Amino acid sequence: MTSGEDDVFVTAIKPLVDAIGAELIAPGQAGEDDVVLSWAGAEAVAVRLPHLADSLEHILGELRRRHGMPLAELDRRTKQQVVRALETRGAFAMRHGVETVAAALGVSRFTVYNYLNRETAPRPGGPDQEPTATSS
Hints:
Number of domains: 2
Number of helices: 5
Helix content: 40-55%
Largest sheet: 3 strands, antiparallel
Number of strands: 3
Shape: elongated
Distance between the termini: 81 Å
């Protein structure tokens, strides 16, 4: 593979690598936990994945950049959306995930749990509710 082909491949995967907070390294420097990627039948680059705790910090940093302000300055509704997005990405399966997110949002752990429970709680008259008998 030519250097030009390597550059095209690396350029193509770089946004994904950046999005997950990983690092590109030379295939010869790859350790057993790194992922070596091949292109056109040859090893092109290796990806060093971040530690899980670093991943959450990376995601929170990306959310700060996306919103253009510290997460603690977001309004309540936007904070709720952030919590839902983080739940989807598995942030709360990590040890101290709730505490880390609560600190970033400038709210208590209790508030984060309320945001999480708000989405799963049945709503009055919603599809999870039993029909009630009415008298005529």
